[in-house]
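Re: weekly structure request thread

Next one in the queue (361 aa):
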Amino acid sequence: MSYVRKAKNGYYGYASYKDSNGKRRYKSAGKFKLKRDALAKADELEKQLQAGDAKLKDISLVDYFKRWYETYKRANLSDNTRGTYESSFIAISKYFDDKKLAEITRTDYQQFINWYSLNHALGSVKQVNRHIRACVSYAIDDDIIVKDFTKRVQLVENKQRGRHPEYLTTSELIKFKDAVLNRLDGVSTAPYMVLTAIYTGMRKSEIQGLTWNDIDFLHGTISITKSWDDLRKKNNPTKNASSVRTIPVNRALLDALADLRANHSVRVFQNVLGVIPNGRKLNRLIGSILDDAGISKKDFSFHSLRHVHVAYLIGQGVDIYAISKRLGHSNVTTTLDIYSYLVDEYKAKNDNLIIEKLKAL
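Done, posted below.
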């Protein structure tokens, strides 16, 4: 039953409702100058909560995930990131259909993960698990469920699909970079984009979206504040809030980029025809540069350069936290999830080094 509480210069109204366990809870309807207004608002809120409880009590996981995504996530995501959530939604829909959220057990969820992993690599399994776990935490707050059925789930993968992107060794990277430098002519912007990816680890869309205002030649930094939509030819927000960042860059890259000022364009990599190279053109260029450098790599793309950047920094002993911030990840866990294979390889090399050093004792 709703009630009011006297406060300084007014009254607070409170609505009463029962959670999914039948426990009585109260929610504030706000502060009002008059007692009757506070009570009226509390009564109105109580009716809304009761109607909402009845509706949500029997909601399916599919419907709740869609509701959660559209209410809390969609507006703040880039088109690419939205696509990952929509992929998760498709998977949930296929497996759970109209199963009620409140009826899903930990065993049900583990069986879903096992099913999903049959046709997906570990990175994809982790991604769908992250999305569902976030959604479930909101469902607990909404009192639809009490326990987190995603807790302690065992993530599995299809080993055949778990192939990690190829990256370049340090010696290969030097050859590749030299081959890129030979392509710089002050006119074609694509080779400069490749060089930027090597030195910064930025995402393709972030590099495409750079304007001259984003580059601080005096202090040697690049600010990432937006991304480029290849399809719609317009700016998008960055992948997420943590992707907005300013990173230090080396003078060699800045000196090279300065050549493109002759194009007199607002965007750094917009050529004299007003075109920013797309992914297809960049990937073709990558293949051609690999040939020039005498390097043979399978399925090596522009995005692979992000892995190359990380591999090089890890190999140089750069702290993983600093790498995570440079990449624009929301936390170190994300970096470790994506690049765990590089961290493990570097650890294995260091383990051997440790044994060799200990022999000298």
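The longest helix spans residues 332-358. The longest strand covers residues 10-18.
Next request, please.
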